[in-house]
Every structure is written in structure tokens, then in C-alpha cells.
Amino acid sequence: MKRKDSIRSKSLMFIVDGFKLGGAQRNLELVLPQLKRLGCDVSLVIIHKTEGELPLSQLHSEGIRTHSINAKTMWDLLGFIRFIRVLTKESPHLVVANLFWSQIWSALSRFFNTDLSLVWIEHNTYLNRTRSQWLCFSFFHKKADATLSVSQDTRQFLKKRGIRTSQIIRNSVFQPSKVTNHRTNYPTFLFVGRMVEQKNPLLALRTFRLALDQKLVPLDSKLLFIGTGPLLENVEAELSLLQLSQNVRVLRYLTQHEVMYEMARSHTLLMTSVHEGSPLVRLEALASGMTIVSTDSSGLNDIMSRESHEFSDYGVFITGAKELDIALKMQLAIDNSLWTETEVQRRVGLVKEFAPQNVAKQYLKVFDDIASNNIYRS
Q1: Which pTM value belongs to this model?
Q2: DSSP output for 256-282
Q3: Residue-level pLDDT at 39
Q4: Is the pLDDT of residue 112 over 80?
Q5: Residue ranges in 110-177 assigned as alpha helix (H)
Q6: Residue 224 in contact with residue 249, Cβ under 8 Å?
Q7: Which domains does the chain possess?
Q8: Does residue 72 have a pLDDT over 90?
Q9: Which residues, other chains included, contact 39 with Cβ-Cβ below 8 Å and sequence gap of 6+?
Q10: Higher pLDDT among residues 117 and 175, named by residue
Q11: Binning pLDDT at 50, 70 and 90, where does residue 308 land?
Q12: Which of 94, 114, 168, 325 is the most exposed place for a label (fewest CB within 10 A)?
């Protein structure tokens, strides 16, 4: 079949359920400007407005058009009509849908525009989807020309449900132009993520208390929480109950540059998630040279397995969800042998391939193949 024109210089529309802090949204912040610089016309549609949304000013400054639908629920007919109107006005050559709501609406939109090319990107191992949601997903994903996964774990999760994905394109990672090792004099652990049950912040707090009590980490060690969400009050109450006010600070929401600043000053990322799709925060920590202590909650295994060495050789410690197991790994993560300049740069090197410009080029390769002959169609 004769190849059509490249997708470059054509119109791409990305759709996302909401624009609050999360891996899918952070990836869009980084990749969309890169696609614009590569010659694409790029727009972003946000279906549902939520509290704590990421600012759009940076995207606007990069020439990315944004549209807020402000739909109340997934079944908001007026909201869907507004969405179709935006789609008709923009007339994109290709639509890229992130997360469940945007995936279903984008599939329905093909009934109104049969010439539209459509890509779904699956970001998570969604343990909380209902049976009816999975039935919708299984039916409507056939409307997509490609369904991409952001990790091997996500791909395998979908495969178990009988859903074939085309390939893996991992989320991009913000990478400082220069990583300098200017950590604090005392060990500093960092928790970054939404204060929700999935991220399990209370486990991080209780584990830190245990590590101090067992003298597995120095008594002047610090734990910083970055993030907000429904469990924030619980974390602050538990912080008082465990008498940790001298060792723990809750920084709440920070901008990406503020997060990277704290990562550059901290030693070890402490992540206690129940499940993840793409381990974006962990990768950002590696890009900053940090060591990592993480529950085995998806994402890191297929990235690290490219290396012949053990994870721990890099200062990456994956453990079960028991407090003592995590605390013992915290002790290992602050060992002086992991904090030479050479070791810091080795961790930084692990994530170079996930730079936003590289991920944008991977997207373009898939988009070009779809424009060529739809070889990815399920």
C-alpha cells in the first residue's frame, strides 16, 4: 500500500479525563511541546474539571491549544455534544485518548467521523474498574487503530483480560540539564504522590517511625511528603499521633521544578503504592540521582531488567509491603557506597532514553505507521 504523507505538520488532538497531577497528565505536559517542535499542530481536550488541576500556562506558551469541556459525568449528554463540536472544529487527523472516560468518548466519536484515526494509551493496572467498565473497554477498544501501553506490567494486565495492545511506549521523564550531588547532611526520604489509598502514604509514615525506633536510619533523618488528596488529613493526624513533627514535613502541592529541587536535595525516594502503571515519579527520582525504596507495585521491573546487574547495585530496592521489610531497605538505600559521583551518574543514565523528545519521536513513528496503512488496528 502506498504510504500517505507523514503525520508531521498534521493536526494531533490529545484527550484526557482531567488535568490533575498524575502520570498521564505529566507525560502530556512534557511530550506535547516536543511534538509541536517536531512540526505537529497539537491541541489538548480536558473533559472534566477537577480541583488541584495542573496549570496550563506552560502549554499555552508553547502554542498548544486547550479546550475544557467541563462535563459533569461520563453520561453528560450536553458535555458530549460540546466535545463533538470541539472535535468537529479542530478536525484533527489523529486523536490520542488517555484514561477511561476519554477513551470511550473518543471511540464514540468515530460514529460521527469515520475517517478519524484513533490511538488509546493505557496508563495503569486498573484494579478499581467495575465489570461494566471493563465490558465497555473491551468493546470500544476495537474502534482504536492502536492501543498502547506505558509499561510491560500494564500490557500483561490487559492481555489477561483478552485485550491486545500494539506496543509499549513509556511515559517521558523530566531530566535536569545537569545533576549535581548536593544532598542534605542528614538522610532525607521523599514521598511524592497523591494522598490516596493507591499510593498508601500512611504506610510510608508508619515505616519511617519504625525505621527510627529500630535505629535503622539516623535519628536526625527527615521524611518529606509532596502531594495532596483525600488522605492528607489522615496523614497529618497520624503524624501527630506518632510524634514525628520534628522529622516529617508535609509540603503539599509543588510545581515540577520545585519537586525536582527537593529531589536534588534528598537521598531516597520512598514509595509505598499498592499498584502503579508507569512509575513516573520513580524515574524522575533516578533522573535526579536518588536511590529508591519501593513496594513491588509495577513499572520498574521491565525498565531495570535491561541491565545485567541487580537492582540494588544501582540503589534501587524493591520490597514487599511489610513495614519492617521496607525499613530494612531504607537502611541500605542511604549507605555511603551509593553516594559517590559515579554511582549518582549511573542512576541518571538509566533513564536517558525516556527524555520527552525521545518519547515524542516514538509517538510519531506509531502515528506515521497508522497514517500509512493502519497496521496497528486491533
Answers
A1: 0.80
A2: HHHHHHHHHH-SEEEE--S--SS-HHH
A3: 92
A4: yes
A5: 131-140, 152-160
A6: yes
A7: 11-172+355-373 (3.40.50.2000), 188-352 (3.40.50.2000)
A8: yes
A9: 8, 9
A10: 117
A11: very low
A12: 114
What's the CA gap between 46 and 26, in Å, rounded?
14
Comparison of pLDDT for 175 and 226, the residue scoring more: 226
**352 pLDDT higher than 60:** yes
Angle at 182 (CA atoms; ends 181, 187), nearest 5 degrees: 100
Q: Residue 346: count other Cβ atoms within 10 Å of its Cβ.
A: 18
Residue type, 7: I
pLDDT at 103 over 90: yes
Provide the grid cell at 188. 532525607
Three-state SS string over 295-311 comes to ECCCCHHHHHCCCCCCH
DSSP state of 172: P
CA atoms within 13 A on the CB side of 296: 9
Inform me whether the pLDDT recorded for 29 exceeds 60. yes
- The answer to whether residues 370 and 146 touch, using CB atoms and an 8 Å cutoff, is yes
- In the sheet with 65-68, reading across from the earlier edge strand, the strands are 65-68, 41-46, 11-16, 94-98, 117-122, 146-149
Three-class DSSP labels, 25-78: HHHHHHHHHHHHHCCCEEEEEECCCCCCECCCHHHHHCCCEEEECCCCCCCCHH
Starting at the edge strand found earlier in the chain, the sheet holding 291-295 runs 248-252, 222-226, 188-192, 268-271, 291-295, 316-319
C-alpha cell at 288: 535526579
**Cα 342 from Cα 69, distance rounded (Å):** 49
Residue 171 near residue 329, CB atoms below 8 Å: no
pLDDT recorded at residue 277: 59
Per DSSP, the chain holds a count of helices (H) and strands (E) of: 14, 12
376 vs 197: which has the higher pLDDT? 197
